[in-house]
């Protein structure tokens, strides 16, 4: 049985949908497929006795046609592991985000993941309020900021499965490019972003 784990920190994603992405309401994404880059800055993290604090993680997802969270919709994914992670930390990150260690990613792997690749890269994750900037080697360039509405407040939506309390801030990407291979190559700059804090655990 895998070790218990818990992660918390900052989170941002940028996808091909208009603001705000309709996948949360179980509707088909723009163009009927989802292309999204996600990034986590782990400020506090533990997998058994392995400390994951101070590391970052990226994930690329490209889906089949249809509603993203429909059990019939397959996902191809690329996990991007922080090059600063040591061997045990890399193994822990793979176990967690590829669904081998329980929690939400186990459910995702069982229901959706058809193929998974893993790559190691330098990850630079920066946050200033509701402005986020992430660079993952020469694979991902992502800049996003909060979408401001009435009273000059950043909007929120829920339920979002990857955030601390199910609530995520709405945003828009300034830059959102991915270059990995033919299946993971896109520029969805100027489209939807979600951002905020996250807290995930094995149970």
Order of helices and strands: EEEEEHHEEEEEEEE
Low-confidence stretches: none
Q: What is the strand content?
A: over 45%
The level of helicity is under 10%
Which value, in Å, is the CA radius of gyration?
A: 16 Å
Structure description:
- It is a single chain.
- This protein has 203 residues and is mainly beta.
- Helices cover 9% and strands 49% of the residues.
- It has 2 helices and 13 strands; from the N terminus they run E-E-E-E-E-H-H-E-E-E-E-E-E-E-E.
- It has helices spanning 87-97, 104-111, and strands at residues 5-15, 35-47, 50-51, 56-63, 75-82, 113-121, 123-128, 131-136, 140-146, 156-157, 168-181, 184-187, 192-201.
- Strands 1, 2, 3, 4, 5, 6, 7, 8, 9, 10, 11, 12 and 13 form a 13-stranded mixed beta sheet that branches.
- A hairpin with a 2-residue loop joins strand 7 and strand 8 (131-136).
- It starts with a strand and ends with a strand.
- The model has no long low-confidence stretch (mean pLDDT 95).
């Amino acid at each position: 049985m895998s070790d218990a784990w818990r992660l918390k920190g900052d989170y941002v994603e940028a996808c091909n949908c208009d603001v705000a992405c309709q996948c949360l309401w179980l509707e088909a994404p723009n163009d009927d497929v989802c292309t999204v880059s996600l990034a986590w800055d782990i400020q506090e993290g533990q997998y058994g006795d392995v400390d994951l604090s101070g590391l970052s993680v990226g994930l690329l997802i490209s889906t089949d046609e249809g509603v993203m969270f429909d059990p019939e919709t397959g996902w191809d994914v690329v996990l991007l592991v922080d090059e600063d992670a040591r061997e045990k930390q890399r193994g822990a990150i793979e176990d967690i985000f590829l669904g081998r260690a329980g929690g939400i990613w186990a459910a995702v792997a069982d229901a959706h993941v058809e193929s998974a690749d893993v790559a190691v890269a330098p990850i630079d994750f920066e946050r200033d309020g509701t402005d986020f900037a992430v660079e993952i080697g020469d694979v991902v360039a992502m800049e996003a900021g909060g979408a401001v509405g009435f009273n000059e407040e950043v909007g929120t939506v829920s339920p979002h499965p990857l955030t601390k309390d199910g609530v995520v801030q709405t945003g828009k990407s300034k830059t959102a490019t991915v270059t990995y291979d033919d299946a993971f190559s896109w520029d969805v700059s100027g489209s939807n972003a979600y951002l905020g804090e996250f807290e995930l655990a094995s149970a």
